[in-house]
Design brief:
Layout: E1 17-28, E2 31-37, H1 40-45, E3 59-62, H2 70-79, E4 84-89, E5 103-107, H3 108-112, E6 129-132, E7 135-142, E8 146-150, E9 159-169, H4 173-184, E10 192-196, E11 199-203, H5 206-209, H6 212-230, E12 234-238, H7 246-255, H8 265-270, E13 274-275, E14 280-281
Parallel strand pairs: 11-12
Antiparallel strand pairs: 1-2, 1-3, 1-9, 4-9, 5-8, 6-7, 7-8, 10-11, 13-14
Helix pairs in contact: 4-6
Amino acid sequence: MPEHPGTGAAHLKKGELVLLDYDLWAEGGGKSDLIDTTHAEVAKSSDYTLPAGMEFGPRPHLVGGDEFPPALEAAVEAAGVGHEVEKEFAPAEAFGERDPKLIELFSMHEIERLPEMRREDAELRLGSVLTIHGRRGRVVTFTAARVRVDFNPPFAGKKIRAKFKVESAVTEAPARARALIELTYGHGPEFTVALHDKVLTITVPDRAKFDLAWHAAAKSRLVERLREQLKPKSIHFLEEYATPTAKEAKEAEAAKPAPAAAAAPSAAADASPTSPKSGAKHDAAAPAHPEATPS
């Protein structure tokens, strides 16, 4: 197997699962923005907030997968276990050049019908990530009637500086299954994984039971990856719904917020029309406001 001269680090193979430490920066316009990191101290110095469901420390990584652009994946593959690499990538090698044709206009009615905008806590704002016809894009402007969405990768047109180290290979079957859960959906530690006689059983946590992202996309993608990586005889997803005790039910009822007082009829009659998903009120008698733009 090929090795780096002087490092003794064997090249990895596509499809291998590893634990990866890394820092990624996007550079352009005279500034450097931290894209992602596995190091708490780097995040703190850059005022970076870790996305929900993720933790600092080496993360599962599928070599040759779609987590990084191809050039970055190739660099990880060539690094090998235990070898640290720091390298810069031109925009064309990383997230590509910005394409104005990938910025498209949609009606507010179409946006409000999207699954992610039909949740109770949904709110449209600049930077919101939406999935439209299978493509993920970011909201760059919106009015009461129209929404402009940018389908360019967030860091398109910028040079990428990457520093990473492959800490170890993930070889044990249960650990590999948990790594794939983390890669596909996140919140890996909340899942329980067991393998017996080539039957893989995954206990689903409460978080995922009612999560559209789990049921609509992540679950089927995970099954595909588990079949490729572990080749189990079958895969069982276990959902447990325990009946609460009388004491637990009473405590849950007491914890519910008090119902809001009903609005007076006169107030309801005077209220302006409201778009529940955009979170902005629009006065029908007032002229349309200009498009919101990033600060």
